Amino acid sequence: MSTSQAKGPSPLDNDEMLLVLQQSLTKKRVLIVDRHSPARDSLRLMLGALGVTLVHGAGNSAEVIRQVKTNRFDIVLSDFVLDDGRDGQQLLEELRHAHLIPLSTVYMIITSERGYTNVVSLAELAPDDYLIKPFTAEQLKARLVRSIYKKHVLRHIYEQIERGALQEAIVACDRVIHQQPQYMYDALRFKGDLLHTLGKTHEAEEIFRRVLEGRVVPWAKMGLAMALRDRGALDEAEQLAEQVTAEAPDYLSAYDFLASVHEAQGKLEAAQQTLQRAADASPHNTVRQRLVGDVAARNNDLLAAEKAYGKVIERSKGSSLRTVDDFANLSRVLVERGNVSASRKISAEMKREWRGDMQAELAALVTESLCLNSEGAADKAQHLVDQALALQKMIVDEAAEKGKHVSQRLAVDLAHACYATGKEGEATKIMRQVAAENHEDAHLINHITSVFEKTGQPDAGKAMLDQVGKEIVELNNKGVLAARSGDLEGAVKLLIQAVEQVPNLQFLVNAAKAIFALMDKKGWDAELAARALDYLQRAQRKDRKSAKVASARELYVTVAKKYGIATDKT
Predict the structure, then answer these.
(1) pLDDT tens-digit map of 192-218
(2) Is the pTM of this model over 0.85?
(3) Exposed e or buried b for every residue in 410-444, given b needs 16+ CB within 10 A?
């Protein structure tokens, strides 16, 4: 839970609480999530007695996803036990991960005494509050008013974050720190995270050290550990993260971070073990299960990879986090384990679930090609690869036309099938393109490396990745040097050419920033601005947490504000 929740926010006086309730609570739109209709009706009546009339209900997670996509809810009241073995904590994770509810939404979990420990244990995404059954209308009112008041205090921080104005969000944090000391630690946490997002590592480090001087809390230690990692102090970062896992074993994001440090240190077995500990404690977290599968596959621990990928499919039914890649991952591992029949079964399940989806059809062709190749039917395998290559071209063309996402991992699997059937030219072309467009995605680069190893050409793989990296640096430097010399028009032209050639995160960000810098000097250009915003959105889809993306977004907001242009959320 957040620091203020653990301690409890400073109590408001009765008049102020009543004022907040009368002016705010009755106007809020509420979503009740409970698999039992009578329980939803009972809570609806309780809310009605408090004057809350804008109340919606959802009986399962899929219905929640549908509702939040069509309505903006101020409050979500979710039972801890949901459908299909999922829980309210997992739902919160999904809603936040997919940015389906804003930061200003109050998310409260309703639980039994027995379920309470499950709620408070998953500290990296704590609910705003929790209610233990049974409770009265007065208790519900008090908890809602307290949470609404806190959201009100922090509202300017939320607004600036959602606009992408991160510097202004930091200013809003400082205002809360000075004017609302009872929420100082909440504001310091936001400020530290914002500084980290903007790549201001040393300033973020100072914030987290300041917090730790006053109180030892897991999130501050983790913030400090991230800052240390980002400036290359991996051993110190590892030590701090290990302290958190020892002192607060239920703070599960610490395990994810520690595993990433282990990977950076080349300790792949330690990374797998660390992630597995967190996955065992939080079995419904599909993102973490994928990471377990990925690192286990890299370690050639195929049984562990099969189990992890299987859990992802099993636990993500009806979830917006479910992808074709999940099925492709499991199918690929099953082939590598020699279980061709099981691989075909998973592939068939994928085709049923994703009927009409071209990427699912591509994944099925690639999987069957690998199956046939393992059975010695090389001619049949080659025929399917030819079909897959033609389908991949259609997918890429459609994606370019309609702005759709193309699975890069699946493209690497296609390259694997090409190598396996003697189509080295096509395979290398695919690998070069994927590597160039995703050179900052460590997991995808690792997947490329593993395919080269499995096909008996690790040296060739390393040489190709090194060459791609060199070409990217040279291409980028031309535009950057033009910008530094003051030739902004030339920089924009060169970087746009670079994006059209290789739409990787670095080029997308640099081209967007060059365009915004040009407009800052020469004036707003609607057509150029639309292009830059498209680049920014594409970069964000690649890595929403990237400091480079945040910096470009910040520049966009600043320049747009200068010319009185309203900024849309990306």
Answers:
(1) 999 999 989 999 999 999 999 988 888
(2) no
(3) bbbbbbbbbbbbebeebbbebbbbbbbbbbebeeb
